[in-house]
Amino acid sequence: MTLAKAYAAPSPKAPLEPFTFERRAPNEDDVVIDILYSGVCHSDIHQVRDEWFPGIYPQVPGHEIVGRVRQVGKKVTKFKEGDTVGVGCFVDSCVNCQTRDEDREQYLPGLIQTYNNLDADGQPTYGGYSDHIVVKEGYVLRVPDHLPKDAAAPLLCAGITLWSPLKHWNAGPGKKVAIIGLGGLGHMGVKLAHALGAEVTVLSQSLAKKDDALRLGADHYYPTNDAETFKTLAGTFDLIINTVSAPIDWNAYLGLLKVDGTMVLVGVPDNPIPVHAFSLIPGRKNLAGSMIGSIKETQEMLDFCGEHNIVSDIELIDIQDINAAYERVIKSDVRYRFVIDIASLNKA
Ligand code: NAP
Ligand code: ZN
After folding, report:
1. Which residue, judged by its Cα, is nearest atom 23 of ligand 1?
2. Chain segment 244-289, per-residue pLDDT in tens
3. Which cofactor is essential here (predicted)?
4. Quick one: 277 and 328 in the same domain?
5. Average model confidence (pLDDT) across the chain
6. How many helices (H) and strands (E) are present in the chain, helices listed first?
7. What is the β-pairing status of strands 17-23 and 237-242?
8. How far is the CA of 185 from the centre of ligand 2 (A)?
């Protein structure tokens, strides 16, 4: 076991504070990673505040991890000391399942999340707001070396969460794709959909982010606080990805789909969503959900980002500023992802 320095929420809704804990000793198939950068996902806030399900406390969030390999077990073949690697939302999955499907493993029972979960040994998992982590080789990702390590961290959740549905629903040339919400996930959706060749529209609450959206690769931008937007864009999109967790008018957005179009939820609202049957039936429309992506898809996304030089637009923060950063995320006031410089854990 090794002592890890971290920040944790001691209890639901309490601010994060310094915390130390023992990381498990590495097995022969494990990689020990010194964490360099950790992205701040809105899911971290939902979970430390106990908004989804009863959480495990103290809770060390963080599932957008980029680091450097410190040590590898003797059965590890894919990584060596010094490699730049990433860890995303899960660190183990259905190890006993005979039918493990590597393209869909995030949907199998037995998924062990990077934090706020119990590991195979029954101990809590602790995430990336910490100085090192021990992860099975099969759950470690290779991060292209030429990408900036801090701005690459959000690819491990925000990137893959948009990549997976974009690929699954064939976003590409000739397809009209809308992204609702230009936050951490949404801005990655714009960059990835644009690089895949789709025609991209951003639907944001106001005109405030228009210049940014166009710079990030959007072809069009419409404010959703203007009722005209819903008249102008009626029946336009093949695919809409909704990254918003706040309540929205679902029926109005479904009206923007073409016949046979699909709206995919990735944002997680607190309450059941009110959808009228006539928002779906007349246009044979689809309403679907999507959760992160498999390890295989995540590596494909990282390689694609390496080829296309795609990273996140970030604000780099010290870990001591994490509670203020959370408040800014909640106010939609982050451009467009906070990333923690983990070296700041050593500041007094
Ligand atoms: P974020 O950075 O806070 O972005 C959310 C965006 O939603 C905001 O930037 C804002 O965009 C929009 N928004 C906020 N309040 C709104 C309101 N009252 N009405 C309409 N729009 C509003 O969050 P994130 O990190 O991208 O995460 C988004 C959601 O996805 C969270 O619920 C998170 O838990 C979830 N998530 C899901 C998965 C998955 O696998 N499905 C993975 C990661 C995260 P505008 O300012 O442009 O309107
Ligand atoms: Zn996330």
Report:
1. 42
2. 999 999 999 999 999 999 999 999 998 999 999 999 999 999 999 9
3. Zn(2+)
4. no
5. 96
6. 9, 17
7. unpaired
8. 8
pTM more than 0.70: yes
Instruction: Please report, as a single letter, which amino acid is at residue 291.
Output: M
Is there a domain that residue 28 lies in?
Answer: yes
CA distance 135 to 26: 8
H-state helical runs in 196-294: 210-216, 228-232, 250-254
Is residue 279, in this structure, part of any structural domain at all? yes
What is Dmax (Cα atoms) for the chain? Answer: 62
Quickly tell me which residue has 């995919």 as its tokens.
264
CATH number at residue 71: 3.90.180.10
Amino acid at 164: S
Q: Ligand 1, from 64, 332, 337: best to mutate by most atoms within 8 Å of Cβ? A: 332
Instruction: Tell me the C-alpha distance between 105 and 112, whole Å.
Output: 11
Nearest to 271 by CA among 42, 51, 45: 51
